[in-house]
Amino acid sequence: MKNNNISSSLISHPSSLIIVTGGAGYIGSHTLIELDKAGFDFLVLDNLSNSSQEAIKRVEKIINKKIPFVKGDIRDKELLREIFKENRIDSVIHFAGLKAVGESVQKPLVYYENNVCGTNNLLEVMKEFGVKKFVFSSSATVYGEPDKMPVTEDMQTGVGITNSYGRSKYMIEEILKDLFISDNSWKIAILRYFNPVGAHESGMMGEDPEGIPNNLMPFITQVAVGKLPKLRVFGGDYPTHDGTGVRDYIHVMDLANAHVKALEYINNNDLNEPLIVNLGTGQGYSVLDMVKAFERASGVKIPYEIVDRRPGDIAKIYANPNKAKELLGWEAKRGIDEMCESAWNWQSRNPRGYKGE
Length: 357
Ligand code: NAD
Ligand code: UD1
Known about the structure:
The protein has about 350 residues and is α/β, with parallel strands linked by helices. It has eleven helices and 13 strands.
């Protein structure tokens, strides 16, 4: 074995494993808990470019089990081959990717190389080893600026996407569809996330972005702990009920559970095409709705100011989540109050995130 970063527990792991790429990240780490609860064994591959191994340690505490972890990159074919050679891999849940929208506009080649080439690389090695079950983290961003609401999976994608991050997700979806056309024994689930927020109920894990958060909820929680002075609300003149942008926020633990359901679905069903499902609640909330809900949940006042619209933002998007309910038997259970309470529970106990006490 060449790579010193591979933990020895990986070698010849007896049971069949799921590789969770990006499993140290926000959504991936929460999903590990649900996978474990459902009785799945897994191995995490993450280059820690946007995460900390502390997240894995926290999951280990919660599930009371050691997690096989490989610090490595999905673009490293030799490393992937070693992992596939030395373990019985059953399937891959693929979270690994770069996700900062603004940065993707500045560095499109970095985003295409990491997200698109990285995924292609991973799929090539899966093909070499005959592993053909794949669950992919896509995004509502593939719908661009939809003209109808709520959004259903059959609506047009790929048009009107305003950034390279979003286009990388669209391109990967197209690669996956082509792959299935070339060989219909692949079992692929494309999960289009709406806006994941919140944290595990323990308060031990949560979203821990590097630097100043781009997304709304971590920005609000960091204002609440006093790390940031006030929230800037991007646009107060959208055609929405209060003029601020409307999104479909979904609790990260509900989202995590959907991965288990998607995996079970592709394990147990023959597919005529990749499974594509929206993962949202079906309910749209504005920025100011979220601020009020957070204030209710935390008892902390969030100072804010309404500023210009953020380039690339759309007024409103929310999911029609019926397909996930019909096919996967999945629906979001947690509401906006639980999303805000859990986000606050995490941030107030861990004001510096995983960087510690
Ligand atoms: P995250 O940044 O917390 O997690 C992604 C993980 O992938 C990180 O731990 C990072 O270190 C790792 N990674 C990145 N490039 C890698 C590479 N080349 N090799 C190995 N590991 C690599 O992000 P997240 O919020 O948990 O998102 C997970 C996935 O879901 C991403 O693909 C993201 O694009 C997608 N997604 C996220 C959202 C959201 O709002 N958070 C919405 C829609 C889709
Ligand atoms: C963004 C990305 C999307 C990506 C997702 C997760 C765009 C166009 N979309 O979604 O591709 O999958 O993040 O990374 O960038 N807001 C404020 N102030 C803030 C932050 C946000 O008012 O400081 C508002 C936004 O204008 C928006 C809402 O809050 O109306 C949600 O924003 P955000 O959390 O960034 O998610 P999206 O823009 O929906």
